[in-house]
Amino acid sequence: MLKQFTLAEIADFLGAKYQGENIAVTGLNTLEEATGTELSFLANPKYIKQIETTNAGAVILHENHAQAVKNAIISDNPYFAFARCMGLFAEKEGFFEGVSEFASIHPSAKIGEHCTIYPFAVIGANVEIGDNCTLFSGVYIGEHCHIGDNCTLTPNCVLMSRTSLGDNCYLQPGAVLGGEGFGFVRTDFGIQKIPQIGHVEIGDNVEIGANAAIDRAALSKTFVNSGTCIDNLVQIGHNVQIGKECLIISQVGIAGSTKIGDRCTFAGQAGIAGHLKIQDNVTVGPQGGVVKDIAKNSVVSGTPSMEYNTYMRHSILQPKIPDLFKRVNALEKQIEKLEQEINTKK
Amino acid sequence: MLKQFTLAEIADFLGAKYQGENIAVTGLNTLEEATGTELSFLANPKYIKQIETTNAGAVILHENHAQAVKNAIISDNPYFAFARCMGLFAEKEGFFEGVSEFASIHPSAKIGEHCTIYPFAVIGANVEIGDNCTLFSGVYIGEHCHIGDNCTLTPNCVLMSRTSLGDNCYLQPGAVLGGEGFGFVRTDFGIQKIPQIGHVEIGDNVEIGANAAIDRAALSKTFVNSGTCIDNLVQIGHNVQIGKECLIISQVGIAGSTKIGDRCTFAGQAGIAGHLKIQDNVTVGPQGGVVKDIAKNSVVSGTPSMEYNTYMRHSILQPKIPDLFKRVNALEKQIEKLEQEINTKK
Amino acid sequence: MLKQFTLAEIADFLGAKYQGENIAVTGLNTLEEATGTELSFLANPKYIKQIETTNAGAVILHENHAQAVKNAIISDNPYFAFARCMGLFAEKEGFFEGVSEFASIHPSAKIGEHCTIYPFAVIGANVEIGDNCTLFSGVYIGEHCHIGDNCTLTPNCVLMSRTSLGDNCYLQPGAVLGGEGFGFVRTDFGIQKIPQIGHVEIGDNVEIGANAAIDRAALSKTFVNSGTCIDNLVQIGHNVQIGKECLIISQVGIAGSTKIGDRCTFAGQAGIAGHLKIQDNVTVGPQGGVVKDIAKNSVVSGTPSMEYNTYMRHSILQPKIPDLFKRVNALEKQIEKLEQEINTKK
User: What share of chain C has pLDDT > 90, as a percent?
Assistant: First the structure.
């Protein structure tokens, strides 16, 4: 945290007012952990008690709580104001500028203006890279790849041949795009490999997590549309198509040829089988296993996935299933006894 | 897609006949997506309606459907004929040839003929590499590793010391072989680390996925036999032994010392506990959790895994379990009432 | 396995006695696989029959079994004695010494004594590295990182900016620390990115697995305390706090802001939701899904996780659930019939 702003500068940046002393703010933190030179925020009124004990130098809060602290920035939406401050304090990752003489760049590659290429990055034949891109060390860009403007590929990211990225994409370390799809078919005469001759296409404003893998298509393309954010260690199979503004959380796996609509959210470790259609605005719970098509706006959970309310009822009852077996055992004995009694009376 | 063949050349390659115009074919695609210079195929008769609307320049199909299109290649098995064409159109990955002066190769390493070593690859002491191998940038080969002929290690693959690969192996980017097995034992006096002094041995014709991890053995070796294909982000623990021609789909985890037979298929995200014996031809469903030995030819699914038919019945009934609780509640009340009525009559 | 010791030297190292011939021991192995120059061990009496057929040159065993073999080392705890021998035979990974002229080291970086820096490692601005550290090829250390003494970062590990490691840490290949946390919030006006301005802090004696990912915090820090061991392909979300001496097995995912106590064990593929408190000494079973706080010393399993004994009973009964439905169907018919009979008699 090397940056520093005055409280007045921050208020000005937010288009908001401040009260109290115009202190120098050296960082941002939670009410619980903030020190005397840090700015914090109060968004959820249930944390209001922390206001009394916080060491924060100043707090962003709603005017309803303005008298609770001395130094404050007043905001209608303290959470978003604080999130904007996080952008203010964020440091651009990296320490190198220009194009390193220790990068390996094929003569046929075209690189835009104001790009940063770290030592030991490799750029292949016929690659095209837009303006203002940053390629960290260990990045490999295969032949015929196309990268838009303002993209960042952090260390050890790999784009295999013919992968394309739109503008403003950010790849966390170790992400692999365009590896060969798992095209193996078991036949009577052994495993047949189906060569994967498609590619990967990524839209604009896409973020891809550390050590995630997006396979290239068997034919045509694997596609991730603009605004979608993919977390660490996610697997996207060949020919998958993902819509706009989806959130794919860590360790999710999506099998081949599945089509996913816009604004879907898949929670951590969920698995989506192949050749399915998941429509817009679908939410899949953590560790959920989706094995059939899902209609738009659905919220599903469990394995195999079911409608959310059913899943929640099932979840609560699941630990009581052993007891249910006992109850059915008892019922069977009771009914046998009753039958005997009735037969005796006949 | 830079290659191009005439329809006659492709028919010749397949040992098949063609009909219609001898067009230039620039690529391969599905009936739905193919353009006028692309070749497609009809394997499953249920897609026959797509023949009417496809823009494909030509189609591989069975002679029963030959009159449905003008330009065609006639085949008894259109799917496999098409798969062979994919091999025809596949481009060899990469753009570099020879041994880069910017690779770091230990003087004691022995490298076969016709190998390609990219810039920034590292080859350690006493390594032996066969003929016709390709090591991309960022690859690290630890000391005493042995690599057969015709192997490809794509960018940023790592072989730690003493790992051996057979012939014709293909490693997707970021795969890690020979990392230390997780040899930690919790004892009364803290966690004890058990040094892992074994290694990893891989057979011939093995493919390993992006960012997959195969740990070296505590003693002796972790072993993957010939023809087995391992997908992205798979974890293989120390001392695991995997047979021939297995398909291990993405994100599967296999815990230490488990032995797996030949021709097993583990679907995505399945987990196999340690110290088990999984016999030949076993299939484990997606997200399945195997905690006991499995007999040959079994198909299992679920967590803990059960026989497939049982799993399917369970899957269908699972969402009805909350209703089953209600039904048992009702039965208990009914039977209590009946008991009272009978007692009253006594 | 290049090292070699006499049986007497090994006995001396263990502070134990040996019997038989003072053979040269070239390696360690199981009773089943050991050859005539290898040392094995008998810890569990159920393997005593293997003593009769083993080819091992010598065996570490309890004096109760001393007469079963000719060459032996006598130990009260053969397993731990053998584990110590594994340390004796373990080779230090790597083949390079000194600081490579082909590493890229920022002039402002401070590097301690006796460090090994491989070719193609990158060390950023204002980095501080202690003594006796080893950085393999492809390692990237972002600006303002701090690394203690005796740390090993194997090939292609990445520390993004401001990450700190304590002493004696070991990172397996491809581990990524300090990647940006998944700070995306879906709002009415699209996905908002919350910049992640915190960092990652790792204690002493921590091991981190191949291709694992530990995200940096939104604010403050993501923290892994001393002695904790993290396996391959594990995901640790932003602001997670993990206590001392935990074992986090392969493919586990821990979502953001969850706090974990000391000495917890999470088995493979378990998932822990965000914002939870898991107290000391908690064990979570394989593939378990934890969605609520867990009290200390608990053992839980299943999804959603339940108390271990309940889970085991549920696991056994789960395949019988389809049958339970049939039994309830039958009861409903029986009771209907009984009701009719009783009503008829009225």
Answer: 92
- ipTM reported for the complex, 2 dp: 0.95
- Hey, are the CB atoms on B269 and A273 less than 8 Å from each other? no
Q: Give the closest-approach CA distance of A189 to chain C in angstroms.
A: 34
Cβ contact C156–A174 (<8 Å) = yes
Q: Which of B250, B314, B328 to probe the A interface (max A CBs under 10 A)?
A: B250
Q: Do residue A325 and residue C317 have CB atoms under 8 angstroms apart? A: yes
Q: Which of C120, C176, C232 should be substituted to probe chain B, the one whose Cβ sees the most B Cβ atoms within 10 Å?
A: C232
Query: Could you report the per-residue pLDDT of B273-328, keeping only the tens digit for each?
Result: 999 999 999 999 999 999 999 999 999 999 999 999 999 999 999 999 999 999 99
Cβ contact (<8 Å) for A209 and C122?
no
Please give the CATH architecture assigned to the domain spanning A157-304: 3 Solenoid (2.160)
C-alpha to C-alpha distance for B300 and B246, rounded to whole angstroms: 16
Q: For residue range C212-264, what is the model confidence (pLDDT) as tens digits? A: 999 999 999 999 999 999 999 999 999 999 999 999 999 999 999 999 999 99
| B142, B179, B335 ranked by CB distance to C335: nearest | B335
Q: What are phi and psi of B256, to 5 degrees?
A: -55, 145
Among residues A114, A238, A275, A314, which one is catalytic?
A: A238
C-alpha distance from C302 to closest chain B C-alpha (Å): 8
Mean pLDDT of the region A123-131? 98
- Active site residues per annotation of C: 238
Q: Residues 6 or more apart from A233 whose CB is under 8 A from it?
A: A209, A210, A211, A212, A250, A251, B211, B233, C211, C213, C233, C235, C253
Mean pLDDT of C190-205: 95
CB contacts, 8 Å: C1 with chain B? 197
Q: What residue spans define the domains of chain C? A: 5-89, 104-309
Architecture of domain B104-309: 3 Solenoid (2.160)
How many Å apart are CA A191 and CA A177, to the nearest integer? 25
- 3-state secondary structure at position B165: strand
C103 with C122: CB under 8 angstroms?
yes
Of A203-212, A306-315, A336-345, B51-60, the one with minimum mean pLDDT is A336-345
Q: Is B65 a catalytic residue?
A: no
Calculate the alpha carbon distances from C131 to C163, C207, C327 in Å.
Answer: 18, 18, 70
Both tokens of B20, joined, read 């219609």
Contact: B229, A182; criterion CB under 8 Å? yes
| Shortest distance, CA C223 to any CA of chain B (angstroms) | 19
Task: Tell me which of 3.40.1390.10, 3.80.10.10, 3.40.50.300, 3.40.50.10190 is the CATH number of domain C5-89.
Answer: 3.40.1390.10
Helix residue spans in chain A (DSSP H)? 7-14, 48-53, 78-89, 308-317, 321-345
pLDDT digits (tens, 9 = 90+) for A7-45: 999 999 999 999 999 999 999 999 999 999 999 999 988
Q: pLDDT value at position B222?
A: 98
